[in-house]
Write a sequence for this structure.
């Protein structure tokens, strides 16, 4: 499975991020709590360099809490300031603002020493497409100012927004990276919704997802689709057909509509209907 999705607007956004970075006090890097490593853009990491950064794990409502705790510990162990977020409900957003302001404190103190007083903290929100950057901004503003959507690539331009008196935020378009060599990472980005659905091979992605579900979460599959664990087919293709039959996803002539079943499974997975998932595991990281 080879996925390459780096359209012109992302290249442009990457240039914009590079240009704006010198104005920024703190970077808020939004990661997807379900894939905290796979959702970290290596190009962004390089761009941000040593600039103060808060690593925020968003969509925490969709991730396995025990894994999330491990991940937070992992990032803190590497010296990062972290925050836990659910930008859809706004949970954790106030705490994030506190951390961002604290992170900027040193710089503001330096400015103050130079006689520049009362300047707002400038933060830039970075993250892959669909991770929740605009949702976070709306939560912080308390209005639906930034456009959001349940598909990647919603934000196109840059937008500065003022949160209270002390914080200015720059929303940015989601950016992936030009060379995605790790196909395991590509799978995780596709299944969690960071890559446009018509860019990747949905059939392969769903079959892989079904294999994972079959092996590790058979009980959840059975519960959601009213299957019996004893009768679960070992083969993912057969499992897909079985779910389609149970769901009554049939085309004319009584044939299972595989495309429709794939979309049902994907939508259920992304919405948390199959439970909480963390697809990146800290214990899989090689020591570095
Ligand atoms: N369950 C859940 N959904 C979230 C959370 N944060 C954002 N979403 C949803 O994720 C989708 C994407 O949110 P956006 O805020 O548009 O994401 P974005 O990062 O601005 O995306 P681009 O502009 O495309 O890069 C929307 O449907 C949000 O409602 C969260 O913490 N939990
Ligand atoms: Mg956006």
């Amino acid at each position: 499975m080879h996925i390459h999705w780096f359209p012109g607007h992302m290249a442009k956004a990457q240039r914009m991020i590079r240009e704006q970075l010198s104005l920024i006090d703190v970077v808020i890097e939004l990661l997807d709590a379900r894939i905290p490593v796979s959702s970290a853009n290596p190009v962004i990491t390089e761009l941000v360099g040593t600039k103060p950064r808060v690593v925020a794990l968003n969509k925490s409502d969709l991730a396995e809490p025990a894994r999330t705790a491990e991940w937070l510990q992992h990032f803190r162990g590497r010296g990062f300031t972290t925050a836990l977020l659910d930008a859809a409900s706004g949970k954790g957003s106030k705490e994030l603002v506190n951390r961002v302001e604290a992170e900027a404190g040193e710089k503001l103190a330096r400015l103050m020493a130079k006689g520049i007083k009362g300047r707002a903290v400038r933060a830039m929100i970075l993250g892959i497409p669909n991770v929740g950057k605009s949702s976070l901004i709306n939560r912080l503003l308390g209005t639906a100012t930034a456009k959001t959507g349940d598909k990647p690539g919603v934000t196109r331009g840059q937008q500065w927004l003022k949160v209270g008196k002390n914080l200015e935020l720059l929303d940015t378009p989601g950016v992936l990276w030009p060379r995605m060599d790790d196909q395991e990472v590509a799978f995780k980005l596709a299944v969690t919704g960071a890559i446009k659905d018509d860019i990747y091979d949905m059939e392969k992605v769903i079959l892989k997802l079904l294999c994972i579900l079959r092996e590790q979460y058979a009980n959840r599959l059975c519960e959601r689709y009213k299957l019996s664990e004893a009768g679960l087919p070992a083969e993912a293709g057969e499992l897909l057909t079985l779910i389609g039959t149970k769901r009554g996803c049939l085309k004319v002539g009584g044939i299972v509509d595989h495309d429709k079943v794939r979309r049902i499974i994907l939508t259920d997975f992304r919405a948390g209907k199959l439970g909480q998932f963390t697809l990146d595991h800290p214990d899989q990281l090689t020591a570095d």
Notes: The longest helix spans residues 93-113. The pocket of magnesium ion (ligand 2) is lined by residues 133-134, 154-155 (CB under 6 Å). The longest strand covers residues 26-32.
